[in-house]
Amino acid sequence: MTVLTELEKKVVLGSLKSEYGSAAEDYIWMFSVVEHSGLTGKVARGVVSSLVKKGVAVVHNYEGEAGGPAFKLTEAGRMMAEELSGESCDKGQASEV
Q: Tens of pLDDT along 29-84?
């Protein structure tokens, strides 16, 4: 099983609280993940990179007017988020964290 650092846990939990939705269900803007993690941008980007390497998250760069990087938890990341938050992150279900 993948072990997460405390900083990685902050990013995973922060990704569930975005005003754009939950990264357990869909891609959300990276700036929102950073904001809700409580980490600085530089630190959060490094942590996200680590999460991607561990297979916990994926990042997609959107092109266009509202473009930029977006973040989503993988299935493994979603399961970790459920364990960390104590809440269900089932797709299609609204979950408050």
A: 999 999 999 999 899 999 999 999 999 999 999 876 676 899 999 999 999 999 99
- The beta-carbon contacts of 18-24 under 8 Å, at least 24 apart in sequence, are 22/89, 22/95, 22/97, 23/57, 23/71, 23/72, 23/73, 23/77, 23/81, 24/73, 24/77, 24/78, 24/81, 24/82, 24/89, 24/91, 24/95
Range of the domain at 53: 6-85
Residue 59, burial from CB neighbour count under 10 angstroms (0-12, 13-18, 19+)? middle
Residue 10 lies in a domain: yes
17: which strand partners? none
